[in-house]
Specification:
homodimer; 104 residues; alpha+beta; Arc Repressor Mutant, subunit A; three-stranded antiparallel beta sheet; 5 helices; 46% helix; globular; DNA-binding
Chain lengths: 104, 104
DNA sequence: GCCTGTTTTCGATATGTATCGAATAGTCCG
DNA sequence: CGGACTATTCGATACATATCGAAAACAGGC
């Protein structure tokens, strides 16, 4: 029944991403930290962020970021990698993510 | 004891407005509708927005918008007027509000 | 096939907030 | 002052979410 926990995660099409989804994704400090790390140092596995939250909590944050069209995930061996989707998002919400990240 | 309910409302200094406050304020459709109306038609009294929510609910939204540094309120007779504070906010978070409003 | 490492799901808790109706309080006018 | 108008606060409800630890699922190596 619990069909594939790891079953390649679903990512929304840009059309399906609402401004509420994006704002919600950006409105959390932990999630912004994730974005900043990805931006500064490139793709990273979920377990390598060194943030002060439990792994299960991080997983929820990744879900929110996926829903907001901000990250995309792909599997590599037993690790799940995260990559930014901002360039793509920017065609729909120009400057939004940049404006938020600029606000240290 | 309940010292002045109407006692001129408090507005945060720009220094005290966090990016979380701003994003939170922007992350609600009703609040964005308020902002758009103010932007399109200028200052307005609280009771003149014609939005489908109770007056008490609107009051909470105004509080969130004040906290996010997005509006300022001033009293005129028995009405409380709302005015945008975006130009000011923009010096601290350049382009943020504009980017959100551009996302219809 | 079994163990190890990685991530997600589940169950539970605590907190935040959007919403309403009713009550309260300020302002103006007669 | 009393009444009408305007807006906020209070109390209650419903729902969302951030958080954790434990359990479950997948990939790789022995």
């Amino acid at each position: 029944m619990p069909l594939g926990r790891w079953a390649s995660v679903s990512h929304p099409e840009l059309d399906e991403v609402t401004v509420d989804d994006v704002l919600h994704a950006l409105a959390d400090p932990t999630r912004r930290a994730i974005i900043r790390l990805l931006e500064a140092e490139g793709d990273r596995a979920c377990g390598t962020f060194g943030l002060p939250v439990a792994a299960s909590t991080l997983s929820h944050h990744f879900r929110a970021l996926r829903k907001g069209g901000i990250i995309r995930q792909y599997d590599e061996g037993r690790k799940r990698m995260n990559t930014l989707r901002i360039a793509e998002l920017d065609t729909k919400f120009p400057g939004l993510v940049a404006a938020v990240l600029a606000s240290a």
